[in-house]
Task: inverse folding
């Protein structure tokens, strides 16, 4: 029993991460009428929010966090884009920046959400930039900011706020 | 000032950067070059597709009820309009059946076997859609086992939405026509004008207007707003007569030498729940 208490966080955290990776895609397709209503292009980024919780609640040292980030990035690339590396670097960049900036923020909800906001912006900007490396970018920066970045941030900040305390207590219970 | 990186981290970052750029360029090149997915990727995709399918049951149900709640609002006006349209469809159906049987008997007399208008459809359900900035792909629940192959056209609602970009054993990915990468939207199409047809290919997708672009048209045949656009079957892979959309605007290109036509796609590319994959008889031979 003691052993399970020791490792349960290490098991449950990646399982949820894995589940959210697929949930993002399912939400994108099943709620397409809302999220993809032309000209909007709103992305559910639950996976990134779950990674943010680990950084915000300072549990990254108890799990092989960076391994999870790379693995989830690679899975994302294999399953969703077929181009390896593009989202791996986006997940990594967002997590590295959030991790580095974490000491400058305190535990309150609002400053936590600000940190999450920075992570989301980094993630979206990196994905926008990788579109230029492989020459598939066809949306101007202005439209990207207006119809994708801003609505995506609004949606995901709300989700992050709703899940903030539940995630916090879950992490407390598990560890 | 606090040091952000140690020199060891800096070296790791530089190496990591090159590895990732190499991976992106390499896998993009590989995907373009081959028709088959590498085994590892295929295996992972099949596995991921299975999990995705389970998760999609509740999320699809939620999405469906949200859609139907939205539809309820304009049901009355829509119903009135549809009632007036349905009478003409009954007439068309009878006519289609007569013409089809006539067509078959004529083909028999000419000893023609399969032509470009003969195709079967495989229906599939969308189980996932990539939550990505670029290359929005769908994952559908039919794959190589159902006879799908890379490059086949995919229909939803009333028209074409894209083509199969990757085939795994039990699922496949669809690149949408709104995707300007690779050859996702290079369909050979024909505009049915009042004074004869105009052939060409879809050359681009204008994401600012949400419309397809058919460029470099030198034909002098008149094209009007509202003319129907369908696949022409030229090239032999895509069946002829699949509905693409309607002409939205005709302009001349930047040099004034040729025409440029904007086409409003008939299917809603944002919300795709079920699809049909057209399998040409010519191709299966």
Result:
């Amino acid at each position: 029993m003691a052993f399970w208490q020791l490792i349960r966080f290490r098991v449950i955290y990646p399982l949820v991460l894995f589940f959210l990776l697929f949930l993002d895609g399912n939400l994108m397709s099943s709620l397409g009428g809302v999220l993809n209503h032309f000209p909007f292009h709103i992305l559910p980024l639950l996976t990134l929010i779950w990674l943010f919780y680990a950084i915000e609640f300072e549990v990254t040292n108890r799990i092989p966090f960076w391994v999870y980030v790379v693995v989830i990035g690679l899975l994302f690339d294999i399953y969703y884009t077929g181009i390896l590396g593009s989202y791996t670097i986006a997940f990594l960049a967002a997590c590295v920046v959030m991790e580095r900036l974490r000491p400058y923020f305190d535990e309150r909800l609002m400053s936590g959400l600000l940190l999450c906001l920075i992570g989301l912006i980094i993630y979206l900007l990196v994905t926008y930039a990788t579109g230029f490396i492989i020459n598939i970018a066809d949306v101007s920066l202005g439209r990207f900011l207006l119809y994708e970045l801003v609505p995506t941030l609004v949606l995901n900040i709300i989700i992050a706020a709703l899940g903030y305390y539940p995630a916090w207590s879950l992490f407390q219970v598990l560890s | 000032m606090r040091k952000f990186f140690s020199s060891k981290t800096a070296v790791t970052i530089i190496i990591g950067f090159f590895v990732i750029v190499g991976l992106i360029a390499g896998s993009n090149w590989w995907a373009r070059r081959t028709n088959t997915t590498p085994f590892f990727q295929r295996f992972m995709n099949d596995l991921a597709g299975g999990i995705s399918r389970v998760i999609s049951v509740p999320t699809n149900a939620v999405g469906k009820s949200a859609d139907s709640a939205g539809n309820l609002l304009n049901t009355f006006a829509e119903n009135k309009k549809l009632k007036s349209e349905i009478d003409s469809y009954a007439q068309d159906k009878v006519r289609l059946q007569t013409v089809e049987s006539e067509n078959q008997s004529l083909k028999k007399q000419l000893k023609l076997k399969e032509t470009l208008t003969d195709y079967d459809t495989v229906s599939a359900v969308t189980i996932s859609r990539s939550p990505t900035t670029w290359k929005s792909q769908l994952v559908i629940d039919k794959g190589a086992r159902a006879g799908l192959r890379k490059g086949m056209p995919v229909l939803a609602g009333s028209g074409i939405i894209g083509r199969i970009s990757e085939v795994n054993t039990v699922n496949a990915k669809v690149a949408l026509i709104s995707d300007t990468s690779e050859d996702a939207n290079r369909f050979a199409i024909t505009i049915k004008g009042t004074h004869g047809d105009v052939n060409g290919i879809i050359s681009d997708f204008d994401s600012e207007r949400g419309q397809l672009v058919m460029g470099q048209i030198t034909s002098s045949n008149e094209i009007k707003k509202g003319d129907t656009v369908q696949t022409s079957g030229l090239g032999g892979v895509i069946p002829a007569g699949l509905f693409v959309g309607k002409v939205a605007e005709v302009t001349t290109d930047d040099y004034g030498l040729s025409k440029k036509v904007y086409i409003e796609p008939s299917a809603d590319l944002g919300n795709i729940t079920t699809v049909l994959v057209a399998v040409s008889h010519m191709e299966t031979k």
Q: What stands out?
A: Chain A touches chain B through 55 residues (CB under 8 Å). Chain A has seven helices and no strands. The radius of gyration of chain A is 16 Å.
